Prior knowledge:
Bound molecules: S-adenosylmethionine
Binding site for S-adenosyl-L-methionine: 599, 655, 708
Strand order of the largest sheet: 6-7-5-8-9-12-13
Keywords: Methyltransferase, S-adenosyl-L-methionine, Transferase
Radius of gyration: 26 Å
Domain Methyltransferase: 628-691
GO biological process, one term: methylation
Distance between the termini: 40 Å
Active site: 736
Amino acid sequence: MDVEHPAAATTMDVERQNVAHPAAAAADGEDRNNSDGVTSAAPANVDAETAAPSVTTSTSNRFESDSMRAKFDHSSRKVVVHNVLKFMRSKDVTKLTSSWINQYNSSNSNHQIQIVNARKPPKDSWIKVTLAHEEMVTPFITFINSGGKDGNALVNERGRPLFAKRVDEMLDHDDNDDHDHEDDESDATDGRKRKGTVHANDTPIDNDSNGSDNNGNNKRFKSDTQQKPSLSDDEVRDAITPLWRLSYEEQLSSKIREMVNKCANKIVKEIKAKFRTLEKEAKRGHRKEVIKLYRWLNQNRAINMQQPVPSPRTSEYRNKVEFTFGYRLVPEENEVVEEKDGSEGNGVNVVNNTNEASATTTTNERHDNAHDVVDASSASATTNAGESDVPNPTNTNNYRQVPAVGFLAQGWAGGVYPPHPLQNIPNWSCSIADILNTDFLPKSSIPPYDSKTHRGVWRSVTIRASLRTKECMVIVLHAPAKGGAGAREDGSDDYSSVFEEEKARLIELLTQSVLRVVERSFPKEDHDGSEDVTPVSSLKGDDNEAENGIRVTSIFFQEYEGLSNPGPDHPVQHIYGKEFIEEKLGNCTFQISPGAFFQVNTDGAEVLYNIVVDRIREVTSDPMQTLLLDVCCGTGTIGLTCLNQGVVGKLVGVDIAEPAIADAKLNASKNGYTDKSLAQFIASPAEKILPDIMRDIPRNTPVVAVVDPARDGLHGIVVRALRANEKIQRLVYVSCNPIGTLTRDAAMLCGPPTKKYPGIPYKPTMAQPVDMFPLTKHCEMVMTFDRMSKEEYEKHHS
Ligand SMILES: C[S@@+](CC[C@H](N)C(=O)[O-])C[C@H]1O[C@@H](n2cnc3c(N)ncnc32)[C@H](O)[C@@H]1O
């Protein structure tokens, strides 16, 4: 049964009316299942997962087919282009956006982009465009950010570079729509000025929220900063872990300030605005009842915000990392690597980069291409790549592009950077990056996928490992072996004949021994740009030992021809070892398959789930009779932990991702819950099934609910169902996007009743931030909502 989201339908209608492009109307009517042939390597996310990264994944999860998704979900098709002129007439906006499309389409005859709507607020310097299809987003962004002269950004009439970003990535800001890149100077790092020179947006690493990575790698510098041909280690840290210069205490302080100002205060503001709207409607005679502002909204600290709970690990905490295959820019004169056998045709190009860069060179900026000089035959050798993997930024001569894997710290045009300098990235993932960069890619006759030409094969690699079980899964995303959607007709970039051989070589390299410990150096806390670095071993003590035993236990390949990232249900090919990895949390063991979400900070997840357990325990007077609704349950972690802790006796979990639900069912039996009437898991979009589930709950069964949606928050139908059903007295909302979608959903759960959101509202009774992502601006939030008492409610409605 398809459930229409009325809000979505309305938006769509409005968009149709606002078509600003001649081509738009036609595009809108087209079957969006057809990918227009536009492809691009969606770069892997860096900081991804905040259950970030994964925005893209999560959105793509929501609907069963592309056409359904395209029909309902606009956010994943929206891009904001910054730095256009502030004052423009609407016909100039149309002219400008048409000129982008014409430029792109005329130089990419195989791949066409279409804009269905373009909107520019009168006094702002940005335009929000809605593309006809999600798969056009990455090429469009790449085009704006690097389709100009010499691979630089397009410029406005005054020569200022434009800057494009997905709307669903702009979640660090108060209001996505109102964000103006020119005003970025006030950073969220508490007003303390950063000591570095580079400013970058911090984007979640992985989608995983369901994590899907959503191109978090598309980090760009402020438009007023000239893009450099290469970045120093510190600049890479600035781009990907922007809080790294702060002590951990300072990081937590900056996060709590954000949570108070941009989450708690914003929720109160939004709810008050709803009251004002009702009042205005009453004054105009459109409504009879005037509802008095709920008392809690006028209290001093209306939302009880707790200090953030720190992450048990503050460095190398990620259990999942996603690298992009691309090219490393290596200055010609520094290039010492000898082309090895078989490297012919692997896409090494010479780039003439004339960008001016800083004239001073620090030790951190000294680069000698250590990866290239490491003897590929000595598997036990350790590399010291953290200090030396990018070219000297003072050198503005010719650059060679060397196939490499890593993070796109400054967009596709800036090349990939090794993960070694990043303190949130675990050692084992650097070890795999080294294998790929020193042993695999230099000898591979198959090139990385190029998001501009849509040719090439290797796209990204996702690695997930457990320090507790020592297992490690590697998923290699690749375009078809014949060379990607832009493959030449003459077949000269068809790699099918060597693909299987390369696959076998990769398996051999990844599995020949346990992952070796890579020596890395991190700056001391409160790094001020001096050369004071502390070797990782002394930072981590015994933990370093723990990593010694990790080995690759599963390998998957995933072929994907589309433009963005595949959804979690996209088929994978299992080519080595186990079909899942196992992770332990508390007393439970969980299996995780390639398409399933799992929190990226294992120790942090334990803390997070214990908080949820406590919030539920507070209200369950008869736990064994109590049913837990676990909405967006993933592999069943929260629900099964609650069963295991005895705070509830029954569980119904819902998740859109089939692989996650398959895991959840097995996880239930693995942890001793074989009786399906006690632990039931359903694969479905929550908005389709939740109203039915709630209707079927026996009248006398006490119910608590926990929701843990991806970054795009809850569907309106889910919010409505949770609000309307007064059996639920407590709702625990776990959010990886507390300053974005949590505020929106909270306002709908707690605002005065309307036709669309009827029922006695909730009120937020506790907000507990949990720092799952040290060094980045992201923060998880557990917000507890309790149903307002009937008595209190009626006072305001009399
Ligand atoms: C942040 S994860 C949380 C998973 C789980 N609670 C955990 O802690 O591991 C969000 C989950 O929401 C799921 N999801 C996304 N959209 C959904 C939808 N419309 N209905 C149900 N689940 C959805 C994703 O598949 C993902 O597993």
